[in-house]
Amino acid sequence: MEDKTMEKKNLDWANIGFSYVTTDYRYVSNYKDGKWDEGTLTEDPNVVINECAGILQYCQECFEGLKAYTTEDGSIVTFRPDLNAERMMDSCARLEMPQFPKERFMDALDKVVKANEAWVPPYGSGATLYIRPYMFASGPVIGVKPSNEYQFRILVTPVGPYFKGGAKPITICVSDFDRAAPHGTGHVKAGLNYAMSLHAHEVAHANGFDENMFLDPATRTYVEETGGANFLFVTKDGELVTPKSDSILPSITRRSLVYVAEHYLGMKVTQRPVKLSELGDFAECGLCGTAAVISPVGKVVDHGKEICFPSGMEKMGPTIQKLYDTLTGIQMGRIEAPEGWIHKIK
Ligand SMILES: *Cc1c(COP(=O)(O)O)cnc(C)c1O
Q1: pLDDT over 90 for what percent of the chain?
Q2: Cα of 164 to ligand 1 centre, how many Å?
Q3: Is 158 left (phi over 0), alpha (psi -120 to 50) or beta?
Q4: Tens digits of residue pLDDT in 93-119
Q5: Are residues 133 and 151 in contact, defined by beta-carbon separation less than 8 angstroms?
Q6: Distance of alpha carbon 236 from alpha carbon 271, whole angstroms
Q7: From the CB of 99, is ligand 1 less than 6 Å away?
Q8: 252 CA to middle of ligand 1, Å?
Q9: Quick one: CATH architecture of 170-331?
């Protein structure tokens, strides 16, 4: 394999945006006859599968998302990748797919990031190397059943800073569509949860909103999440509240922010069902996930009724800003991290 790791790619890191860029290497491992092969890096970005593959017919697939980036001291690291490995194993179990072992996940991650070192943006650029592990049914099925063959891959692609010129609060609408049924698949990271959310997303955009707030489908009175991020609320006396439900995706960012709030900022944190009708009582609102860490929400619109948070439409609320600064400080190596949170690759 030709060594492409030496020189950094000549990219305008601050302006690359968020779209797929083909990088040099990706990791591939195949599951067949009841076991995973040893796995390898490849330069081929294309996947060739049978026309009747389980992914194409019955959408048997799950994925993860995390980032590699350069810290203040020049190391290349990822943030809590063990939790991505574990969550993917949970997704596989729910979707009747074979689990990719955690140690192998970690090893594959290190290999693919190292091989694409030239694509890891420099410290201070605000850009990161987005990492997408995923698994799909590659073997043919026509009768409805789990496939006998699977492929696990990790692709990486550089992405620009999420917020260019500061984080402006967004406006979201209460959706008329539902995201995930009770006892369904809302808690697993599967493409199927996204396929059905695309229409809701397009409708929200067409109506001038940035995102959807999905409610619990059973009663449509509790807040769940958006298509791809969990909610955070801050009360007027500075308590962090996060919605609790079996059908929201267990965001690693949200779980980390809860820890940061309690152990770094001394805040009270409550994880409980949150009613739509109580939103007007909160002082601040945000969305959290790997991509943005936190996006501030300025306004929620429920069928013409506006719920405006006191933090306003100009900037992040003060508590959410503190949470954001502390977590990103930990990630970038400016603030000491809890044991095991920063995984050094190089
Ligand atoms: C991935 C995802 C999130 C965010 O999870 P992180 O681990 O923080 O990136 C939130 N909601 C949904 C539906 C997701 O798929």
Answers
A1: 95
A2: 21
A3: beta
A4: 999 999 999 999 999 999 999 999 999
A5: no
A6: 16
A7: no
A8: 7
A9: Alpha-Beta Barrel (3.20)
Q: Are 157 and 20 in contact (CB under 8 A)?
A: yes
Distance between CA atoms of residues 45 and 189, nearest Å:
23
What percentage of the chain reaches a pLDDT higher than 70?
Answer: 98
Domain boundaries along the sequence of the chain: 13-161, 170-331
Give the number of residues written for the chain.
Answer: 346
Residue 252 Cβ contacting ligand 1 at under 6 Å: yes
Expressed in angstroms and rounded, the spacing between residue 145 Cα and the centre of ligand 1 is 27
- What distance in angstroms lies between residue 45's CA and the mean position of ligand 1's atoms? 25
**Does 228 contact ligand 1 (Cβ within 6 A)?**
yes
Ligand 1 atom closest to residue 253's alpha carbon, by position in its atom list:
8
To test the pocket of ligand 1, the residue of 62, 91, 188, 251 to mutate (highest count of ligand atoms within 8 Å of its CB) is 251
- State how far the Cα of 305 lies from the Cα of 316, in Å rounded to an integer: 22
Give which of 221, 222, 200 is closest to 211, Cα–Cα.
Answer: 200
Decide yes or no: CATH 3.30.470.10 for domain 13-161. Answer: yes
Asked if 296 and 308 count as a contact pair (C-beta separation under 8 A), the reply is no
| C-alpha span between 111 and 133 (Å, rounded) | 13
Using only C-alpha atoms, the chain has a radius of gyration, in whole angstroms, of 20
Q: Is-contact 221 275, C-beta < 8 A?
A: yes
